[in-house]
Design goal:
With about 180 residues, the chain is of the alpha+beta class. It has helices at about 10-35, 70-90, 100-120, 140-175, and strands at about 40-45, 50-55, 125-130, 135. The protein has a four-stranded antiparallel sheet with strand order 1-2-3-4. Helix 2 (about 70-90) packs antiparallel against helix 3. It starts with 11 loop residues before the first helix and ends with a helix.
């Protein structure tokens, strides 16, 4: 039986990926505060992408941002419970899986990155703005990208690969 590395083997490699998302998220938010909080937005791709600074007191798309403050703790508790569920989910996944744990690690890192802001500051710092003409997508951050990419990966797995994984499990059980 092959020896696994306790620090980087399954499931720790996925926790390291989640930690990398958190570190990248916090570092880019600190950078964005320093660069854009008191200054003008910077056009990256004119007419499409800019860096700006925004504070989101609500959830996705500023949902409940004007609710009076209770939402800080409500969304914090939801993120904490969700993170614990994902940590356990990652721990229980078979070591051979790659796509699902990678997706979960990205989601976990994003949830923890935004939770960090919500607990420390009471809001989430956003700085990436995508727009076209008068249409503007809500400003977001690296944690939001981790959550979105991870969620898209889970949907892809569910739609295209879940049955194949089920077949492998069923075939292994029959042998």
């Amino acid at each position: 039986m092959p020896k696994t590395n306790l620090l980087f083997g399954h499931p720790w490699r996925w926790y390291w990926l989640a930690l990398a998302v958190v570190v990248l998220d916090v570092a880019t938010k600190v950078w964005a505060v320093g660069e854009f909080m008191y200054g003008p937005s910077v056009q990256i791709i004119p007419g499409f992408l800019q860096f700006t600074y925004a504070e989101n007191y609500g959830a996705a798309f500023s949902f409940l941002s004007d609710a009076g403050g209770w939402q800080r703790w409500f969304f914090g508790v939801i993120a904490m419970v969700f993170s614990i569920v994902v940590i356990i989910w990652l721990w229980r996944l078979p070591a051979l899986k790659r796509w699902e744990p990678c997706a979960l690690a990205l989601i976990l890192g994003g949830a923890l990155g935004n939770l960090w802001d919500r607990i420390l500051l009471g809001y989430v710092r956003d700085f990436i703005s995508v727009y076209y003409g008068s249409w503007h997508f809500p400003v977001f951050n690296v944690a939001d990208m981790g959550i979105s990419i991870g969620a898209a990966m889970l949907v892809i797995e569910l739609l295209f690969f879940a049955e194949k994984d089920g077949d492998k499990t069923k075939n292994n059980a029959e042998v």
